[in-house]
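USER:
Try writing one entry.

ASSISTANT:
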Amino acid sequence: QQQQQQQPQPNNAGAIGATRPTTPSPMEVAAETAPTESDYPSSANASPTGLGKEKVGMGWNSQVKSLVEFQHMKRTCARARVYLYQAPFTPSVRYTNGAEHFVLPSGWALLRSRQGLLVWLELLDDILLQEFLIELASSSPPPKPTRSTAGLRTGSPSPSKKAPAQMTLSLPDVGGGLHGQVEIRCPRACPIDLAIRVPSEDVIVLRASGASGLGLRAAMGSGFDEVFKGWLSDWDTTV
Protein backbone atom coordinates (compact mmCIF):
# COMPACT_ATOMS: atom_id res chain seq x y z
CA GLN A 1 0.00 0.00 0.00
CA GLN A 2 2.83 2.39 0.76
CA GLN A 3 4.17 1.79 -2.72
CA GLN A 4 0.75 2.58 -4.22
CA GLN A 5 0.43 5.82 -2.18
CA GLN A 6 3.75 7.16 -3.38
CA GLN A 7 3.23 9.62 -6.22
CA PRO A 8 5.82 9.79 -9.00
CA GLN A 9 8.05 12.81 -8.69
CA PRO A 10 8.78 14.94 -11.77
CA ASN A 11 12.21 14.47 -13.23
CA ASN A 12 14.08 17.80 -13.02
CA ALA A 13 17.24 16.49 -14.52
CA GLY A 14 16.38 17.97 -17.90
CA ALA A 15 15.78 21.38 -16.34
CA ILE A 16 19.27 21.58 -14.88
CA GLY A 17 21.27 24.08 -16.85
CA ALA A 18 18.24 25.17 -18.95
CA THR A 19 17.87 28.88 -19.72
CA ARG A 20 14.64 30.39 -18.44
CA PRO A 21 12.98 32.96 -20.73
CA THR A 22 13.48 36.42 -19.35
CA THR A 23 11.80 39.75 -20.10
CA PRO A 24 14.25 42.14 -21.79
CA SER A 25 15.30 45.08 -19.68
CA PRO A 26 14.28 48.62 -20.69
CA MET A 27 17.90 49.27 -21.65
CA GLU A 28 17.89 46.27 -24.03
CA VAL A 29 14.60 47.38 -25.58
CA ALA A 30 15.96 50.88 -26.06
CA ALA A 31 19.08 49.50 -27.70
CA GLU A 32 17.01 47.41 -30.13
CA THR A 33 14.66 50.26 -31.07
CA ALA A 34 17.24 53.05 -31.18
CA PRO A 35 17.24 54.88 -34.53
CA THR A 36 20.06 54.03 -36.87
CA GLU A 37 21.79 56.15 -39.52
CA SER A 38 19.15 55.18 -42.10
CA ASP A 39 16.34 56.33 -39.79
CA TYR A 40 17.46 59.95 -39.84
CA PRO A 41 15.79 62.35 -42.26
CA SER A 42 17.60 62.07 -45.59
CA SER A 43 18.14 65.80 -45.82
CA ALA A 44 19.58 65.84 -42.32
CA ASN A 45 22.35 63.47 -43.41
CA ALA A 46 23.74 65.99 -45.88
CA SER A 47 27.15 67.33 -45.01
CA PRO A 48 26.43 70.65 -43.28
CA THR A 49 28.28 73.83 -44.09
CA GLY A 50 28.73 76.98 -42.11
CA LEU A 51 28.30 77.56 -38.38
CA GLY A 52 28.17 74.53 -36.14
CA LYS A 53 28.90 71.61 -38.48
CA GLU A 54 27.28 69.26 -35.96
CA LYS A 55 25.23 66.32 -37.16
CA VAL A 56 21.49 66.32 -36.58
CA GLY A 57 19.53 63.28 -35.44
CA MET A 58 15.95 62.22 -34.84
CA GLY A 59 13.63 64.45 -32.82
CA TRP A 60 9.92 64.86 -32.01
CA ASN A 61 7.57 64.15 -34.94
CA SER A 62 4.99 66.94 -35.31
CA GLN A 63 4.15 66.28 -38.97
CA VAL A 64 0.92 67.64 -40.44
CA LYS A 65 -1.13 65.20 -42.54
CA SER A 66 -0.92 67.16 -45.78
CA LEU A 67 1.92 68.35 -48.01
CA VAL A 68 2.30 71.89 -49.31
CA GLU A 69 3.65 73.01 -52.68
CA PHE A 70 6.02 75.73 -53.80
CA GLN A 71 5.02 77.22 -57.13
CA HIS A 72 6.92 79.47 -59.49
CA MET A 73 5.02 80.96 -62.42
CA LYS A 74 2.10 78.61 -61.64
CA ARG A 75 4.37 75.57 -61.91
CA THR A 76 5.08 73.31 -58.95
CA CYS A 77 8.81 73.39 -58.28
CA ALA A 78 8.84 71.54 -54.94
CA ARG A 79 6.63 69.85 -52.40
CA ALA A 80 7.21 69.78 -48.66
CA ARG A 81 6.22 67.94 -45.52
CA VAL A 82 5.00 70.24 -42.75
CA TYR A 83 6.11 70.14 -39.11
CA LEU A 84 4.75 72.57 -36.52
CA TYR A 85 6.98 74.31 -33.98
CA GLN A 86 9.27 71.32 -33.30
CA ALA A 87 11.56 70.00 -36.03
CA PRO A 88 11.77 66.19 -36.42
CA PHE A 89 15.52 66.30 -35.83
CA THR A 90 17.79 67.47 -33.07
CA PRO A 91 19.41 69.85 -32.39
CA SER A 92 17.07 72.30 -34.11
CA VAL A 93 17.76 75.43 -32.04
CA ARG A 94 21.04 76.72 -30.63
CA TYR A 95 21.77 79.69 -28.39
CA THR A 96 25.09 81.40 -29.01
CA ASN A 97 26.31 84.72 -27.61
CA GLY A 98 22.84 85.52 -26.32
CA ALA A 99 21.19 84.97 -29.73
CA GLU A 100 18.77 82.31 -30.96
CA HIS A 101 19.89 80.33 -34.01
CA PHE A 102 17.79 77.77 -35.89
CA VAL A 103 19.55 74.73 -37.33
CA LEU A 104 18.54 74.40 -40.99
CA PRO A 105 19.99 71.36 -42.82
CA SER A 106 20.00 71.08 -46.60
CA GLY A 107 16.54 70.40 -47.97
CA TRP A 108 14.66 72.29 -45.26
CA ALA A 109 12.83 75.59 -44.94
CA LEU A 110 11.59 77.58 -41.97
CA LEU A 111 8.57 79.89 -41.77
CA ARG A 112 8.05 82.31 -38.90
CA SER A 113 5.15 84.70 -38.47
CA ARG A 114 4.64 87.86 -36.44
CA GLN A 115 2.02 86.04 -34.36
CA GLY A 116 4.38 83.29 -33.19
CA LEU A 117 3.73 80.58 -35.79
CA LEU A 118 6.82 78.45 -36.46
CA VAL A 119 6.73 75.96 -39.35
CA TRP A 120 9.44 73.56 -40.54
CA LEU A 121 9.22 72.34 -44.14
CA GLU A 122 11.06 69.25 -45.41
CA LEU A 123 11.55 69.75 -49.15
CA LEU A 124 10.67 66.95 -51.57
CA ASP A 125 11.27 66.79 -55.33
CA ASP A 126 12.95 70.21 -55.32
CA ILE A 127 15.08 69.90 -58.47
CA LEU A 128 13.08 72.63 -60.23
CA LEU A 129 13.38 74.80 -57.14
CA GLN A 130 17.15 74.38 -57.20
CA GLU A 131 17.20 75.43 -60.85
CA PHE A 132 15.14 78.50 -60.00
CA LEU A 133 17.56 79.45 -57.23
CA ILE A 134 20.55 79.09 -59.53
CA GLU A 135 18.82 81.30 -62.09
CA LEU A 136 17.89 83.79 -59.39
CA ALA A 137 21.44 83.89 -58.04
CA SER A 138 22.97 84.36 -61.48
CA SER A 139 20.71 87.27 -62.39
CA SER A 140 22.40 90.63 -62.10
CA PRO A 141 21.42 92.76 -59.10
CA PRO A 142 19.42 95.95 -59.61
CA PRO A 143 21.57 98.89 -60.73
CA LYS A 144 22.48 101.58 -58.26
CA PRO A 145 20.33 104.70 -58.47
CA THR A 146 21.70 107.47 -60.68
CA ARG A 147 20.60 111.03 -61.39
CA SER A 148 18.21 109.80 -64.07
CA THR A 149 16.67 107.31 -61.65
CA ALA A 150 16.74 109.51 -58.57
CA GLY A 151 12.96 109.43 -58.44
CA LEU A 152 12.89 105.64 -58.14
CA ARG A 153 12.84 103.98 -54.78
CA THR A 154 16.24 102.63 -53.75
CA GLY A 155 16.57 98.92 -54.48
CA SER A 156 13.73 98.77 -56.99
CA PRO A 157 14.48 97.48 -60.50
CA SER A 158 14.96 99.98 -63.29
CA PRO A 159 12.16 100.36 -65.84
CA SER A 160 14.20 98.36 -68.40
CA LYS A 161 14.77 95.43 -66.03
CA LYS A 162 11.97 93.01 -65.37
CA ALA A 163 11.42 92.07 -61.73
CA PRO A 164 11.76 88.35 -60.90
CA ALA A 165 8.53 86.35 -60.96
CA GLN A 166 6.97 85.86 -57.56
CA MET A 167 6.58 82.51 -55.85
CA THR A 168 3.60 81.15 -53.96
CA LEU A 169 3.04 78.55 -51.26
CA SER A 170 -0.05 76.48 -52.11
CA LEU A 171 -2.13 74.87 -49.37
CA PRO A 172 -4.36 71.97 -50.50
CA ASP A 173 -7.66 71.31 -48.79
CA VAL A 174 -9.00 68.02 -47.46
CA GLY A 175 -11.07 67.37 -50.59
CA GLY A 176 -8.09 67.60 -52.94
CA GLY A 177 -8.74 71.17 -54.03
CA LEU A 178 -7.00 74.37 -53.05
CA HIS A 179 -7.55 75.89 -49.62
CA GLY A 180 -5.47 78.97 -50.32
CA GLN A 181 -2.16 80.44 -51.45
CA VAL A 182 0.36 82.68 -49.74
CA GLU A 183 2.64 84.88 -51.79
CA ILE A 184 6.39 84.60 -51.29
CA ARG A 185 7.53 88.15 -51.91
CA CYS A 186 10.87 89.35 -53.26
CA PRO A 187 12.78 86.04 -53.01
CA ARG A 188 16.50 86.65 -52.72
CA ALA A 189 18.94 83.83 -53.47
CA CYS A 190 21.88 83.66 -51.08
CA PRO A 191 24.08 81.13 -49.24
CA ILE A 192 22.37 79.84 -46.09
CA ASP A 193 24.44 78.65 -43.14
CA LEU A 194 23.49 75.65 -41.05
CA ALA A 195 22.62 77.83 -38.04
CA ILE A 196 20.70 81.02 -38.83
CA ARG A 197 18.72 83.76 -37.12
CA VAL A 198 15.08 84.06 -38.19
CA PRO A 199 13.09 87.06 -36.92
CA SER A 200 9.37 86.89 -36.14
CA GLU A 201 8.44 88.98 -39.15
CA ASP A 202 6.40 86.80 -41.56
CA VAL A 203 9.50 85.46 -43.30
CA ILE A 204 10.74 82.28 -44.92
CA VAL A 205 14.31 80.99 -45.03
CA LEU A 206 14.99 78.04 -47.32
CA ARG A 207 18.07 75.89 -47.85
CA ALA A 208 17.87 73.79 -51.00
CA SER A 209 18.95 70.17 -51.20
CA GLY A 210 22.56 69.46 -52.06
CA ALA A 211 25.84 70.54 -50.54
CA SER A 212 26.03 73.99 -52.16
CA GLY A 213 24.30 75.74 -49.27
CA LEU A 214 22.35 77.88 -51.72
CA GLY A 215 18.95 79.03 -50.53
CA LEU A 216 16.66 82.00 -50.33
CA ARG A 217 15.21 84.52 -47.94
CA ALA A 218 11.87 86.14 -48.62
CA ALA A 219 8.89 87.81 -47.02
CA MET A 220 5.54 86.08 -46.78
CA GLY A 221 2.51 87.86 -48.20
CA SER A 222 -0.10 89.66 -46.14
CA GLY A 223 -2.42 87.41 -44.18
CA PHE A 224 0.11 84.59 -44.03
CA ASP A 225 -0.52 83.76 -40.37
CA GLU A 226 -4.31 83.82 -40.74
CA VAL A 227 -4.37 81.78 -43.96
CA PHE A 228 -1.95 79.16 -42.68
CA LYS A 229 -3.75 78.69 -39.37
CA GLY A 230 -7.03 78.40 -41.27
CA TRP A 231 -5.46 75.66 -43.37
CA LEU A 232 -4.26 73.86 -40.22
CA SER A 233 -7.80 74.06 -38.86
CA ASP A 234 -9.11 72.61 -42.11
CA TRP A 235 -6.94 69.54 -41.50
CA ASP A 236 -7.98 69.36 -37.81
CA THR A 237 -4.33 69.68 -36.80
CA THR A 238 -3.20 69.08 -33.21
CA VAL A 239 0.30 69.24 -31.73
Summary: Residues 177 and 234 are 12 Å apart (CA to CA).
